[in-house]
Amino acid sequence: MTNTARPERGRIPGGLLCLAASPCFAAMALFSAMLEEPDVICSSSGHVLGGMATMYALMSVFHASPWLTLFSRPFRPRV
């Protein structure tokens, strides 16, 4: 006999872990953009979002699918 009322052990932390990637990468992109000094020798354009900040921003976008999935589901309150 299986109990279907409770989720399996270990399933909830794994679900929350997939939601952590996108905000972490977004924060890393923000900090990299603020703290990164422009490389005058390698970059002639002097863009603010260059190098590591751009990479972190793209990684944040690529890892946003768990958030989009979470927001696309209808809200069901737990009883």
Largest sheet: none
Strand content: under 5%
Secondary-structure element series: HHH
How far the N terminus sits from the C terminus, by CA atoms, comes to 22 Å
Number of helical stretches of at least 4 residues: 3
Uncertain segments: none
Rounded mean pLDDT score:
76
Helix/strand structural class: mainly alpha
What is the molecular shape? elongated
Total beta strand runs: 0
- What is the radius of gyration? 19 Å
Percent helix among the residues? 55-70%
Describe this structure as you would to a colleague.
With 79 residues, the protein is mostly helical. The chain has a domain at 21-70. It contains 3 helices and no strands.
What key phrases describe this protein's structure?
0% strand; 3 helices; 79 residues; mainly alpha; elongated
